[in-house]
């Protein structure tokens, strides 16, 4: 098994799992294409405040109007098709009165998209289409990594100790993610209300940034990626001693806690900056992706360390032989 097998498709994958993975890749690819194109269309808007002649200013304003409509057209399929699992999860859980990570994501998308549509229609105000598409693309990237890790767990070499560890860590991580999400949603509502009263022009940007930060993508990935690394390392070994299994459990627990609490600290550091208006929605989306990639890289580091130890054992046996 290669180093990248931690996130590679398992060999013995059921047709349903393979089909689900293909749909996820299709949504992910379309979201990234839409994001890149909408970001190109949004670039002239950043030049609006630059010094220029009146004729150039009028030409730029006309171009921005056209590009905003084009951005709207490209953002709609990203929201309806790419983000469909988000809407499905948020609506399904809300009927059961259960708050999941889909709820802040759906609120963040709606809070950025609806005012942008209105601003485009009346040709007045700020639009956040690039932030919406960026948020969806980065969110799907994080969820794809989590999905691959879960599939690795499902098709890996199961061990009772690792499975017990998975249940224990997942229970704690789910509780932390739930309370974290509730607290972040409350803060986003309070901060949005404050800015709406004292500086309405910044209320949408601050609220969307806080809602994006409230998405616990990295927290949700913390345990699955660590457990997937443990299963992948066990899959390489023909025999597992109790001593090695005990050490692997400790290393997996440490990595899962690093992922979980490191992600929380990262989000908590950004939250006051976003509440004060220093973090734009697109920057909040980038930080969300960075934290998710950091979680995946930390789990991959555990897998690589286990692979190097196994390679050392093989070399030692070859020398003895």
Automatic annotation (TrEMBL):
Membrane topology: Multi-pass membrane protein
Taxonomic superkingdom: Bacteria
Cellular compartment(s): Cell membrane
Keyword Transport assigned: yes
Keywords: Cell membrane, Ion transport, Magnesium, Membrane, Phosphoprotein, Translocase, Transmembrane, Transmembrane helix, Transport
Annotated transmembrane regions: 28-47, 67-87, 99-121, 176-197, 203-234, 282-300
PANTHER family recorded: ATP7, ISOFORM B (PTHR43520), CATION-TRANSPORTING P-TYPE ATPASE-RELATED (PTHR43520:SF5)
Name of this chain's protein: Uncharacterized protein
Organism, as annotated: Neopusillimonas maritima
